[in-house]
Amino acid sequence: MDPELIDDCVHCGFCLPTCPTYVLWGEEMDSPRGRIHLMKQHVEGTPVTPEMAGHFDACLGCMACVTACPSGVRYDRLIELTRAEVERVHEREPRERAVRELVFGLFPYPRRLRLSRPLTGLTRRLAPFLERAHPSLGAMAALTPVVERRQRLPRLVRARGPRRAVVGMLTGCVQREFFPQVNAATARVLALEGCDVVVPPGQGCCGALSVHSGREEQARRLARRTVRVFERAGVDTVVVNAAGCGSSMKEYGELLGAEPAFRVRDLSEFLAELGPAATRHPLPLVAAYHDACHLAHAQGVRAQPRALLAGIPELELREVPEAAICCGSAGTYNIFQPEAARDLGDRKAEGVASTGAELLVSANPGCTMQIAAAMRRAGAAIRVAHTAEVLDASLRGVPL
């Protein structure tokens, strides 16, 4: 924990109405300034108690407070440092340790995720029974999507028409195994817009899930591998289609102590910079756009995806109420804090339903799983598609 960063907070309270857990519970210690107060106590000698760790664990790390803060407090950095400290000094109870080891031994490793995929239909049906064994197991089973078929990407997808750029593409872990159609759509969109898309082998998790949970050693190891893969590929831009991954990769310099030899851009951010070249065909749909926290708050990318969607003829875009409040996904939060995540998911589902949209557009796999599950609970199932899938359908002139 950094005392200088802690002292930047003047406890003004602008963060309170933006903090999901404060909105849910109204508890000072479950607000950003309350947690910063606890951080200060620890720096000054107070040990990390189970209660203190509980308040830190309850934070989603959504960074809405960073957007709201008039003093520029680096709460994003503070909570990452704090979680690493909690992991170092706090002894969790055995069942919780076991669940965490299961999650971080599975999700960052695509091959292991792939082996688990045939069981997703069964585990979803068994979710109520697994929840009795441990709430996190039930949440994990209920959230996991059923994947109909795997889609392989070639190592190089050639530009359609004149080449305008050469980019690398992150395939990720959860995105790659549970949403392969999103990666396929991303590669097609980039190619249709005149990009050679390099999809280097040897990719895996970028380290985002680990860094957001205080597992620094694992995060650095995964980040170093990701850097090596793309530096060997010789690309100067890596396009990312998962908000949490893009957020973490943009902070590799801070995590690893040296900037990588490439820049990182979210798909919508890159396409906005590149400018449109291919023709958009009409998509007569009413769609709502969901702001993923690690895209809107952590990366400041809000206007670009809306502009891309607005450029599609006949697509009507509607705003979701309380857009700045997290849906409750937050990486592994909806697994480790299932009750709070469920409340936030239900709140978000209610907001989405109020728009009357027939399609929800999301830019993060965790958000997609979280909101889809909440909509199912509410009996108002809605199709959720990634920005890349919507653009892909429009550019190719096919139904979504």
UniProtKB/TrEMBL annotation:
PROSITE patterns linked to this entry: 4FE4S_FER_1, 4FE4S_FER_2
Domain of life of the organism encoding this protein: Bacteria
Organism: Nonomuraea montanisoli
Cofactor(s) needed by this chain: [4Fe-4S] cluster
Free-text remark on how the cofactor is bound: Binds 2 [4Fe-4S] clusters.
Role according to the record: Component of a complex that catalyzes the oxidation of glycolate to glyoxylate.
Record-linked Gene3D superfamilies: Alpha-helical ferredoxin
Protein name (Swiss-Prot/TrEMBL): Glycolate oxidase iron-sulfur subunit
